[in-house]
Amino acid sequence: MERDDLPEVIRHYLTAHNAGDASASAALMTPDARVTDDGKTYDGLPAIERWLNRAASEYTYTTTCLGAAQDGPDRWTVTQRLDGNFPGNTIDLRYDFTLDGGQISRLVIAP
Question: Which residues form the SnoaL-like domain (predicted)?
Fold first, then answer.
């Protein structure tokens, strides 16, 4: 599956997140959304927006979409390669999205 075949909310999230736009990224999530990244979990929009702001300012990187798949009626996985100035310089990450009513209710990011 190509990135363009993903649900619109996921495409918009990836675009906003990759651009470092924390407000636009958070606006695509449910009020009670949960994000897990780097072994830490962030519950609710205020915590998620703080995580997004920190992630956007901590490192500089570019992304390449390596693939996407639908895992269920409301679940999608996107694999991206990040190249940047973080330890290791390159990493492939899986973004596991769960949608609820056209918004993101859960996101798990892991290698």
Answer: 10-98
C-alpha to C-alpha distances, 90 to 3, 13, 18, 64, 67, nearest whole angstrom: 20, 21, 15, 11, 16
The total number of structural domains that make up the chain: 1
From the list 42, 1, 2, the residue with the least C-alpha distance to 22 is: 42
At 43, the amino acid letter reads: D
Q: CATH number for the domain including 57?
A: 3.10.450.50
Give me the domain span that covers residue 102. Answer: 3-110
- pLDDT mean for each 10 residues of the chain (111 residues): 90 92 94 95 95 80 92 96 89 97 97 93
User: Do 76 and 69 touch, CB atoms closer than 8 A?
Assistant: yes
